[in-house]
Amino acid sequence: MLAQLPDGFTAVITGAGGGIGGAVIDALLASPRPGRVIGVGRRAPHRDDPRFEGLALALDDSQQRIALAAHLEGAPLHLLFNTIGMLHDEARGIHPEKRLDDLEPAALARLFEINATLPAMLLQVLQPAFKGRHPTLVASLSARVGSIEDNRLGGWYAYRASKAAHNMLMRAAAVELRRLNRDSTVVCLHPGTTDTALSAPFQARVPKEKLFTPAFVAERLLAVLGERTPEESGSFYDWAGEPVAW
Ligand SMILES: NC(=O)c1ccc[n+]([C@@H]2O[C@H](COP(=O)([O-])OP(=O)(O)OC[C@H]3O[C@@H](n4cnc5c(N)ncnc54)[C@H](OP(=O)(O)O)[C@@H]3O)[C@@H](O)[C@H]2O)c1
């Protein structure tokens, strides 16, 4: 697993309470290789493993992002796996838009905040932990529907646009992180349609064989990430290891 990283590597997984985030934590802990696995969720995640640290932090808040960086106490970070993302929020009445008439500035702003701004601000605050000569991998979950080239169906304006913005922010950060650490690799990953709370309202028309379990996706995404090199930093791959068009 993640052959680029040294034995005993340190990993931070954000979105630990989510379907894919939880499965990534389980997949990492199933391997003897990580030395420290830090799961971050709005509710503290728990795992029965001495290598696991669960933090309750809402990372859309700048002070709580600073608390995450402080928790690392200057230790080098080898893996940041960001799985935070939102598509809908029943409590706030946010649903994917079908047409221009459905666009709401507040919903657009909220999806940008969670899907694009938050991941970029996470990289900003963790820069000291990336800086150095240790190998460092950053994976941030995107979505194929954020591909501008691939958009032939329209709709889902806020989600698509916020993921496209996410991708640009990750690409720009990849260029800059290389200056802090020549052995850094930043990738956007598309997990495929996965059976989680995020996709639950939209699964009806998904053929059974195309609806993946979080465990399968976690294993695939870690395998795809494990094949990446620093030369490929700033790119976008799917769960099968195929590049996705911007
Ligand atoms: N499921 C799919 O079919 C699919 C397809 C393409 C892309 N993706 C992407 O994959 C990623 C993971 O999604 P998932 O399917 O695992 O969904 P999920 O189960 O809903 O998990 C998403 C997690 O994001 C975090 N999050 C959501 N809103 C947040 C907020 N306001 N502030 C802070 N954290 C927030 C939460 O983590 P905590 O509960 O730990 O706070 C939440 O559990 C997302 O970026 C999503 O866009 C998913």
What keyword list fits this structure?
246 residues; alpha/beta; Rossmann fold; 5 helices; 7 strands; globular; binds NADP nicotinamide-adenine-dinucleotide phosphate
Supply the CATH architecture.
3-Layer(aba) Sandwich
Within the CATH hierarchy, at the fold level, what is the topology? Rossmann fold
Work out the strand percent: 15-25%
CATH superfamily: NAD(P)-binding Rossmann-like Domain
What does this structure look like?
With 246 residues, the chain is an alpha/beta fold. It has one domain (9-238): Rossmann fold. It is built from five helices and seven strands; from the N terminus they run E-H-E-E-H-E-H-E-H-E-H-E. It has a seven-stranded parallel β-sheet with strand order 3-2-1-4-5-6-7, sandwiched between helices. Helix 1 (19-29) packs across helix 5, helix 2 (62-72) packs parallel to helix 3 and helix 3 packs parallel to helix 4 (157-180). The two termini are 27 Å apart. The model has no long low-confidence stretch (mean pLDDT 98). Bound molecules: NADP nicotinamide-adenine-dinucleotide phosphate. NADP nicotinamide-adenine-dinucleotide phosphate (NAP) binds at residues 15-21, 41-42, 58-60, 83-86, 114, 141, 143, 190-191, 193-194, 196-199.
What secondary-structure arrangement, pairings included, does this model have?
Blueprint: E1 9-14, H1 19-29, E2 34-41, E3 52-56, H2 62-72, E4 79-82, H3 105-130, E5 136-141, H4 157-180, E6 184-190, H5 214-226, E7 235-238
Parallel strand pairs: 1-2, 1-4, 2-3, 4-5, 5-6, 6-7
The site of NADP nicotinamide-adenine-dinucleotide phosphate has 27 residues, from helix 1.
